[in-house]
Every structure is written in C-alpha cells, then in structure tokens.
Automatic annotation (TrEMBL):
The chain crosses the membrane at residues 6-22, 34-54, 60-81, 93-114. It comes from Aeribacillus pallidus. This is Fluoride-specific ion channel FluC. Na(+) is not transported, but it plays an essential structural role and its presence is essential for fluoride channel function. Na(+) binds at residues 71, 74. InterPro entries: FluC (IPR003691). GO terms for biological process: cellular detoxification of fluoride. It catalyses: fluoride(in) = fluoride(out). Fluoride-specific ion channel. Important for reducing fluoride concentration in the cell, thus reducing its toxicity. Belongs to the fluoride channel Fluc/FEX (TC 1.A.43) family.
Length: 120
C-alpha cells in the first residue's frame, strides 16, 4: 500500500513538472484565444493513457505512469476554467470549439493509443 502511494507520488511529481514545462513552451509559441496548451496536453495525455492500457502493463507501471504521471500531466480543471473564461470574455464560438474538439480528439486519441498499445 505504501509502495503504491510512493509510486503515484513520484509519477505525479514528474507529470506536473512536465505539464508546467510543456504549457510554458507552448504559450511562448502561441498567442491564440484557443487554449492550445491545455488542448495539446489533454489530447496527448489521452493518447498515452490509451497506449498504456492497450499495452496491458503491470499495475506498478500503470500507477506510476497512468495514475501518477498522466493524472498530473492532464488537467480537467484547467479545461473547465478556460472554458468559463472564454464564455466570460464573450468568446462563445471559441469556447464551443474548444469544448467539442477536446472531447472528440481526447476520445479519438485514447482509442488510437489503445489500439496501438494492443499491437505491442
């Protein structure tokens, strides 16, 4: 039990720091109204989690990389906050596009990751 907490904590540390680095890098490259950093992080995280599940890895690795790392890397709360901010700024079209594309591409890439992982 203690091992699981430690493994998830290590993964969470790595995932949160990776998210910070990726977010800052993308935000320097983009000045769009569309929250591209969170979108890329969540879609790529969906793909990677699908890949891990498809690969049928051991529970310890799933805790480290799936629950810990990707749990901290992806961010549903930021996704919701950014949608609320877009609506507050009267960017309804951008908000709807962000909402729909995040779910559609998240599911698509999770499926693709799972299919690719099943090959391995």
């Amino acid at each position: 039990m203690l091992f699981n907490f430690i493994v998830v904590g290590i993964g969470g540390f790595l995932g949160a720091n990776a998210r910070l680095i990726v977010t800052n890098w993308i935000k320097k490259k983009s000045n769009m109204k569309f929250p591209v950093a969170t979108f890329i992080i969540n879609v790529s995280g969906s793909f990677l989690l699908g890949l891990l599940i498809g690969m049928n890895i051991s529970e310890a690795y799933l805790l480290l990389f799936g629950t810990g790392c990707l749990g901290a890397f992806t961010t549903f709360s930021t996704f919701q906050l950014e949608n609320k901010q877009l609506l507050t700024e009267k960017q309804k079209t951008v908000s709807i596009c962000y909402f729909l594309s995040s779910y559609a591409f998240g599911l698509l890439f999770a499926f693709l990751g799972f299919q690719l992982g099943a090959i391995f």
